[in-house]
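Aim 2 progress. For peptidyl-tRNA hydrolase, the working sequence is reproduced below.
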Amino acid sequence: MPETTAPHGADVVARHGADFVARHGADVVARHGADFVARHGADVVARPGADVVARPGADVVARHGADFVARHGVLARGYGHRPDPDDPGAVLAMPIVLHIPKQDPPARSALLEAAAMATVALCLDPRVGTGPEGEPGPWREPYLAWTDARIRKVSRRARGAQWRAAQEVDGITVEHRGAQARALVPGPVGHLDPRISRLQIGGTDLPHDTPDDPPAGVPVLWIDAALDMTVGKAAAQVGHAAMLFAGALDAEHAGAWAESGFVCAVRDADPVRWRHLTKRVADGTAVAVRDAGFTEVAPGSVTVIAVPG
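Predicted structure tokens for this construct:
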């Protein structure tokens, strides 16, 4: 595969062999280095090479199904950058509904974890894939239209009857550590179901909490505390981080994460930890979310860094 090995130079091929580069994919080796891939494998690398998706092991297909591998492949290949339509109401976004009751609201970290889990669960749900005969699932068309465009999410808060009504709109609810969040099938922001469009966007916030250290083996989504994002903004950011992290895993590890219910931890990072995390991004051992800057933060801000557990 000369087109695969050519970009990496004689030193990489000489040290690791052309077959190594071919197995792990040109994009992985180019972005993270052959040494890193050799040490860690494709499961912790952002945007794994096409080989991860195209030739999964038989055990992966047997355990999770060929359609799971295909659904994971959508995340692994990354997202489109189709220009926004001229009509602002036709812009596509995934609504995330956060259950924030007046009495006994959830802990901020728990709610953000639920939002992240719900987001990635929808992205890997069978309904965004194809059926046994290749027929498209009921959510496939709107989901793929969204992933082919600029990825956007809009968080809204709900309580009481509003929350119950939101359960009737296509999506996935996650209950986690006393918190509930629902990710909905993406669609045009100007044509939302009225049960969702009436929900409040602004003013969605909760006080920062101090949860215990993340459990061992659980992926951690670290938020840059210096940005002081509202819980609604942070929910959209950790949702995107969960998508990127899932895409960074190979299909086998993504399947194992799915079996856990996509359990993750969300924590705030102080400046010292954030500097350490940004080094991990540079080393290729972590995945970063860079925000477009439409709301709250400057364009290009790194908002969340996801690391393996």
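Confidence is low (pLDDT under 50) at residues 1-56. This observation will guide construct design in the next reporting period.
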